[in-house]
């Protein structure tokens, strides 16, 4: 078991407390259940796909919500059918909640459910003001007023 002391980050970095909190939360969430299993795939530069194995769930039973930089996927099965008797039960049809922390400027494009797999497509769209820009040498804004 790993235990990381993040208190130096809290007292040394002003304005980065949000980052330290995210690292702290991520280390705590490592102990979360692994249901449902999922993949995170890089499709192209700045394009991603999350694929979750949600066997037994129909579209109306799955909810996808984005709030700030958190993607929340929940699955709720209606009341259990008590009349069913299983000799072996290997398909887990339990409710779930899975959270994903999204990076800055990552947008959810859409979702699709096919063959028991939920695909969620994402894209990082960096605004023009945040993209790197080249500054040419020799184009100074300061004019020489010594004339």
UniProtKB/TrEMBL annotation:
Signal sequence interval, chain numbering: none
Annotated keywords: Stress response
Keyword Transport: no
Domain SHSP: 29-140
SUPFAM superfamilies: HSP20-like chaperones
Gene3D superfamilies, alphabetized: 2.60.40.790
Pfam families: HSP20 (PF00011)
Family, per entry: Belongs to the small heat shock protein (HSP20) family.
Protein name: Hsp20 family protein
Species of origin: Neptunicella marina
């Amino acid at each position: 078991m790993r235990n990381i002391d993040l208190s130096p980050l809290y007292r040394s970095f002003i304005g980065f407390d949000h980052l330290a909190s995210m690292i702290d939360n991520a280390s705590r969430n490592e102990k979360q259940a692994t249901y449902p299993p999922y993949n995170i795939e890089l499709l192209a530069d700045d394009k991603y796909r999350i694929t979750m194995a949600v066997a037994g769930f129909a579209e109306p039973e799955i909810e996808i919500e984005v709030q700030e930089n958190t993607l929340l996927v929940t699955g709720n099965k209606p009341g259990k059918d008590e009349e069913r008797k299983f000799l072996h039960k290997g398909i887990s049809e339990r409710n779930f909640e899975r959270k994903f922390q999204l990076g800055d400027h990552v947008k959810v494009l859409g979702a699709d459910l096919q063959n028991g797999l939920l695909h969620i497509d994402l894209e990082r769209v960096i605004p023009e003001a945040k993209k790197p820009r080249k500054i040419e040498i020799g184009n100074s804004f300061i004019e020489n007023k010594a004339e």
